[in-house]
Amino acid sequence: MSTSEELKALGNKAFVAKDYEAAIGHYTAAIEKDPSNHALFSNRSACYASLRKLDQALADGEKTIQIKPDFWKGYTRKATPLFMMERYEEAKAAYEDGLKIDPNNATLLKGIEDCDKALASSANASPFGGMGGMPGLDNLFGPDTIDRIRADPALAPHLNDPAFVEKINKLIADPKGSMALLNEDPRMMNVFLSLMKTRFKDLGIGDPTAGGAPPASSPSPSPSQENKQEKKEDKKEDKKEEEKEKEKEKEAEPMEVDSDKKAAEAAKEKGNEAYKAKKFDEALGHYSEAISLDEQNIVYYLNRAAVYMAQKDYDKCAAECDLALANGKNRDFKQMGKALHRKGKALLKKGDYAAAEAALEQSLTNSRNADVLKDKQLATKLKKKKEEEAYFDDDKALEAKQRGNDFFGKHQYPEAVKEYEEAIKRNPKDKTLYSNRAAAYTKLMAYTDALKDCEKCIELDPQFIKGYTRKATVHFMMKDYHKALKEYERAMNVDANNQDVVRGYSQTLQKIQETRGDKDRSERALQDPEIQEILREDQVQSVLQLLKNDPAAAQRAIQSNRELSRKFNVLMSAGLV
What we know:
- The chain is mainly alpha-helical.
- The chain folds into 4 domains: 4-122, Tetratricopeptide repeat domain (Serine Threonine Protein Phosphatase 5, Tetratricopeptide repeat); 258-390, Alpha Horseshoe (Serine Threonine Protein Phosphatase 5, Tetratricopeptide repeat); 406-514, Serine Threonine Protein Phosphatase 5, Tetratricopeptide repeat (Alpha Horseshoe), CATH 1.25.40.10; 522-577, Orthogonal Bundle (434 Repressor (Amino-terminal Domain)), CATH 1.10.260.
- It has helices spanning 4-16, 20-33, 38-50, 54-67, 72-84, 88-101, 106-125, 137-140, 145-150, 162-173, 181-184, 186-202, 223-252, 258-276, 280-293, 298-310, 314-327, 333-350, 353-366, 370-390, 394-409, 413-426, 431-443, 447-460, 465-477, 481-494, 499-514, 519-525, 529-535, 538-549, 551-560, 562-573.
């Protein structure tokens, strides 16, 4: 379910795309979740104004002021629809109320200037007042208005439109109260101009729309000339309307101005101070204020996300990073990468490793960073581990083990290995599974893999005799008798009386005696790193020389030093001494 901030971000995105209806829907849904958020009413007011739904725009503007009286933009939200309704005095009063909050605000000052111009223009150029013998509105829209429209070939077809007739009836019933209709419907302005001409003609006054009365000697204009004049006037009016609409759109647009950005930066700095002092709730308040003043600055969202991270609220941290990506304007790849990295870290701490891996991978595509790469590798590792653990099932492990044993008994070793592998995936802590697989690998002469499984047995349970004996068997098969002997000795440290161990140890000693002087075995032994290290020691080299010149002295030296004795036993079992 979306939060109010997420819905607000969707509304902002729709507003920028000029999809005002969609924006209103998102803001309304956000208001249902957070009815005390002044910014939501402020932004919805701007949308209503853009759609010329002025009553709704005014209501939201007033609600904005009611919730947060010190929010200067609320007064512009109230003033904008009033200005568009041509209620200039009220609009000016709203702007002036805003100046009490922010006396130097450029937007408010400009609003007052526009209202003053509009008031001056209406006072000097309005043809509606009935002054100087000019017809008043009550006389202009009289009971014969419909007949006069019907007599005008250009206007008569509009009478077939019920909505048009309804608007005309409103003008007849309340000329002054319905004058806003002239701005809403271009046809109404054409009606007004036509009625003005006929009324002035009835009074013997020249056509005021043609720039003054013509000289008495001038011939009456032909119908075609009148039509040209009307078209010319209509074009002028259309141009004026377009310019007026552009101004209104600027007023309606809920984007931030320079003063907002400065205030936002100031709020951010306060938030940073609170964050350093670990006053997290206070920091959130300041960062939220910064966002309300400059919604497209990605840094403020990232700062708020950092607070949520510090509070260990990882879901909110990740959601805030998404808001940063959705709202940030003109952001660079580095900032986007930072937002995705923070989101990935939050998801990593939450334990949602798959989502964390995806976010961190995306972060790396925006900005290569060693820390991000390290976190991504960790997420991948933990995701794999989690997937493996989800596969654990002791009962199914036993079933696979039994199938493996059956295949082993039938000498079907590859099939046995496959079943033991499945069993290990289901229960990787069962030492017997590795032991059985080691036996199957040994039968297949896959000695390296067999040795790894034997080591795993011993790692899981150092007291497990079979781990040592299986390893010794593998070394024996590889003719590394000195290594086999070593594993039997390790087994004896666990259980010196184990018959399998004693028998294996004896057989290995016997084999060493039988193969003494075996050149191939000696050469292979010399490749053993352990033996190479022993032979590099000066003390060992000295005793080897002494064996040639004085065997008895060499024997005494070996017996007097326990470690030296161990090393020579290794050399002897390898067939090198």
